[in-house]
Amino acid sequence: MDKEDILSESIPLLEIKNLQVERGGAVLLQLPFLEIRSGEIFSLIGSNGAGKTTLLQTLACLMKPSAGEIFFRGQRIESHSSIFEYRRRLAIVFHEPLLFDTTVFENVASGLKMRGIERSEIRKIATEQMNHFGINHLHDRSARTLSGGEAQRTSLARAFAIRPEILFLDEPLANLDPPSRESLIEDLERILRETRTTTIFATHDKVEALRLSDRIAVMHGGKTIQIGTPEEVMNHPVNEFVAFFVGIETVLAGKVIHKENGTLVVSVGGGRIEAVGEAELGEDVTLCIRPENVTLSNPSYQEMTSARNVIPGKISRVISLGFYQKIELDCGFPLVAYVTHTSMENLSLREGKEVKASFKATAVHVLRRGKQIIMAKEE
Questions:
Q1: Three-state DSSP class for 192?
Q2: pLDDT (tens digit per residue) in 278-297
Q3: Cβ proximity of 137 and 146 under 8 Å
Q4: Measured on CA atoms in the order 216, 219, 222, 224, is the torsion positive or negative?
Q5: Hey, which residues does 330 pair with through a beta bridge?
Q6: Do residues 223 and 31 make contact, with C-beta atoms less than 8 angstroms apart?
Q7: What pLDDT shows up at residue 80?
Q8: In which region does residue 126 sit, left (phi positive, over 0), alpha (psi from -120 to 50) or beta (all else)?
Q9: What distance in Å separates the CA atoms of residue 144 and residue 35, rounded to the nearest whole number?
């Protein structure tokens, strides 16, 4: 690799600085810094109104920012000509498929025709993409007759056909039924990994983001609250908002009453919890415990366990969540566990029953109150 290639690899594919979007006097987006690396799948997650679509459309130059700069391969996008050239290098798929009133083949081939590609090459590329997304048998079908899943597959095939340097996905799976959604996300995951297409993916579904992403940005109020790998965001949230959003059901306020060799003993409600983390003796902290890290057993069962926390509790509520059951416990403080239907039957779990809840000290994420990161920053 020569010096020019090394320099190119070190430059982010897309970078923003001090970006702000205002509409009607309201600030919709405010990001001091963000970079997207070549070949990565970068997801934007957050609830409705968090700013995901606004950021995606601004990065795609479909919405003009009020302030700030956008750089593509180190070059600032500012003039009309640079915006036009940049747009030719990207593709966008929205949550509602936007198809021409013609056949599937003509839709997939449309971007190639606009670029003046030879007819034989157009047919080859379009057919390849239709095969990738399992719609080649529909090539002569009118787009008006397609199901939601078929229409979105056509939109994606059209986007990949032009071999974009950046692919923007705005909740493309949001309106699909569960079987169509699962089938499409499998194909999309495979194709993104095979092509290494740089992708910015806006979604409110954390499961989709976990499955597809190299990095995730959690958004709230037009700001990025945390940016990191799926493991970092899911298991090491920077504040309570992120913890709740990524599915950490137990979030507890407490005070450090003992500290030894990196292990903390935290007074919580009517009990104590051991955790591994950074905090000072006497400091107020917040503890985050994922429900899948909590194991339940009968009080009389004397099992061998490496868990530092073995706490008696009573089941206050049982909620069915399809493939598993959500168990809400009163342990002197609220605690949530997930169990399978088999475990539910084997342990005869029901509301009012007393159980033991076990979890490791390393499964407890410690947040230092007052020292939480409010705005995500990157090195």
A1: helix
A2: 999 999 999 999 999 999 99
A3: no
A4: negative
A5: 314, 334
A6: yes
A7: 80
A8: alpha
A9: 39
**How many Cβ atoms sit within 10 Å of the Cβ of residue 87?**
14
* Residue 374 confidence (pLDDT): 38
Give the whole-angstrom CA distance, residue 208 versus residue 121.
34
d(CA 343, CA 18): 51
Q: Express each pLDDT in 264-283 by its tens digit.
A: 999 998 799 999 999 999 99
pLDDT at 370: 59
- 41-45 vs 215-220, strand pairing mode: parallel
The DSSP string of 350-375 is -TT-EEEEEE-GGGEEEEETT----S
Alpha carbon 27 to its chain centroid, in Å, reads 24
Q: Using N-to-C axis directions, what is the helix angle for 148-161 and 104-114, rounded to 10°?
A: 20
Which residue segments constitute the domains of the chain, with CATH numbers given? 3-240 (3.40.50.300), 241-368 (2.40.50.100)
Given a cut of 70, the residues of the chain with pLDDT beneath it are: 1-9, 370-379
Residues 6+ apart with CB under 8 A from 375: 32, 223, 224, 225
**CA atoms lying within 13 Å on the CB side of residue 310:** 12
- Check residue 89 and give its pLDDT: 94
Token pair, residue 32, equals 């001091």
d(CA 238, CA 235): 10
Give 221's contacts (C-beta < 8 A, 6+ positions apart).
50, 51
pLDDT of residue 212: 93
Helix (H, G, I), strand (E, B) or coil at 88: coil
Dihedral (C-alpha) 183, 188, 190, 192: value to the nearest 10 degrees?
Answer: -170
DSSP H helices in 133-171: 148-161
Q: What is the pLDDT of residue 356?
A: 95
Strand 198-203 versus strand 41-45 pairing type: parallel
pLDDT of residue 371: 52
Position 376 scores a pLDDT of 39
Query: Which residues have CB under 8 Å from 369's CB, separation 6+?
Result: 253, 283, 284, 285, 286
CA 260 – CA 256 distance, rounded (Å): 11
User: Which residue has tokens 């905090």?
Assistant: 279
- Predicted TM-score of the model (pTM): 0.86
Query: From edge to edge, which strands make up the β-sheet containing 309-320?
Result: 295-297, 354-359, 309-320, 324-330, 334-340
